[in-house]
Protein: Ribose-phosphate pyrophosphokinase
Amino acid sequence: MDNKRVKIFTGSASPELAKKIAASFGSELGNLTIQKFSDGEFTASFEETVRGQDVFLIQPTFPPVDNLFELLLMIDAAKRASARQIVAVMPYFGFARQDRKDKPRVAIGSKMVANMLTAAGVTRIMTMDLHADQIQGFFEVPVDHLFASTVFLPYIKENYDLSNLVIAAPDTGGTKRANAYAKYFDLEMAICYKQRRVANEIQNMMVIGDVKGKDVLLIDDIIDTAGTLCKAADLMVEEGAKSVSAMCSHPVLSGPAYDRLEDSQISELVVTDTIPLKKQIDKIKTLTVSELFADVIENIEAHKSISSNFII
Structure:
């Protein structure tokens, strides 16, 4: 593989993760400038040639929306600079929770984001743990959908007593994900069934499954305000669980999330670095996904299969 044809750049959303990915790939980050004006407007410019190069732009698109628009400007700049391939590496794909019309007269935000990325000139998307798998179909370019299970499963095997472990989903939407983990280790599964009247506000919740005397591991893709996760942990303890821990791919952790986690029954929360933490607390352990992304970049450039990078 010719690494000289590959150039990796980052926006301002998560430069530390980008540095780790570039280092794991065996290169340094390219020179890109995000210039900001006093009125809040900004622009992106490459300070080195990318003509004929395969350009990988690392930028998770968590809030604010500036991170998404930064990526769009980076893609447009690469296209206008005659890059050969433009790959948007989005460890966290923002607006993914808006994947369908769940009530009348609402936007489908993830489809709109897909349209904007395509219009900007992206030739490939690389992302991790989409909130809904079908979002891949919103794109007319190849999508490499990676899974945090690649780093989570070895951690579970090394740090948990599998003989007493139960895998749990904090809501019915996460049942498929939790079931995949449970089947991999041949474990029992529990589900928290919740009802909501409005977003981020739970009306009631109940546990389906036997967790009495068990160590419960809650599996989720996104933790926003942590209300669902913490209430699920409380319910598990009420149902007789010996301990409760959790794993989450994308630690959005907004609003009261950190305070809720501190006060919750959760003994450990394991997350990835797709989104940088706003602050570090003792309960949170971060696993890096940099080597996974670097391996996939290498396989793409070598025209090799990336299925070996998936455990489940």
